[in-house]
Sequence to fold (367 residues):
Amino acid sequence: MTTIYNFSAGPAVLPKEVLQQAAAEMLDWHGSGMSVMEMSHRGPEFMSIMAAAQSDLRELLAVPANYKILFLQGGGLAENAIVPMNLMGRKPQPATADFIHTGSWTAKSIKEARKYGNVNIAASAEASGFNVVPVRASWNLSKDAAYVHICSNETIDGVEYHFTPEVGDDTGEAPIVADMSSQILSRVIDVSKYGVIFGGAQKNIGPAGLTIVIVRDDLLGHALPCCPSAFDWKIVADNDSMYNTPPTYAIYIAGLVFQWLKRQGGVAAIEQKNIAKAKLLYDFLDASDFYLNRIEKDCRSRMNVPFFLRDETHNAAFLAAAKERGLLQIKGHKSVGGMRASIYNAMPIEGVQALVNFMQEFASSHA
Ligand code: PMP
Fold:
């Protein structure tokens, strides 16, 4: 039987062990006689699932005690509105937020934030076709911004921050807000350098439907009057992410993924695997005259590797042959075209090797 490797950008591959455990527990969770889907979110069974998921995530990311971990809904895109609704109120109205524009996902964040305040594009990689992260020294930050927004990994463009942005003197105290949807848990981060970290779960965490927000305590309680209560981080935090019904099943699966990640040795250990996986694929691309990756070397994403066939007339044949080999969902995002291999935590290096082997053979037979 062909081994399947799923390179989807998200919803994405999950660890097989997690899916097997979920299948085994589907009808009867731990002798409770109920599926997790059927449990009251306020009952002791689900409360224990929720508490374990939160504390495991806190441990995995070494989240300091003065940060809350919130489990919300709405995905990364809803956060594009929820962030300004919660943070613009820190400053006299109309407030300004600074953005570092690195590609497709920041573009959406910028557009949405404009509904709630002023936007200053402090740096942009647009002129380069979004193939770099603007260096910190080039950021033209406002003096009194409500926050500074970055997307630490541009899932579509394949561009990643390999440095922790420090803000400080030239912004006053503007906190950094990072959209880590496609980066979270893939590498060690210093949470204390950020004011807010958010992300949809459907890449490295679990199924779609759960949104993670990690927020420093002093940033709670500034919501604009227009902010829906269910998205007011202070209200959500005061209610332990139970103000409204949380996405219970997605939280349960996320909890299983966190336990799986701990068994892998945690984030530092998975980061080493992710480095090795990315190196394998990028080294192959760089040595090839059949394929091409356009991102500057020191800004390349470890999670999402976009690439092009230099002769794009082979695209359809490439995708069909890849599928035949069990290498699924490699088509690039429609806005950039080409191909994209997303190689999240649950993708083993064997999957990347299988992709490289296939690409090598395809190149030889189509050169
Ligand atoms: N930000 C980033 C970096 C993403 O990759 C995505 C989804 N791919 C989003 C935001 C939007 O997330 P959602 O579809 O969950 O709203």
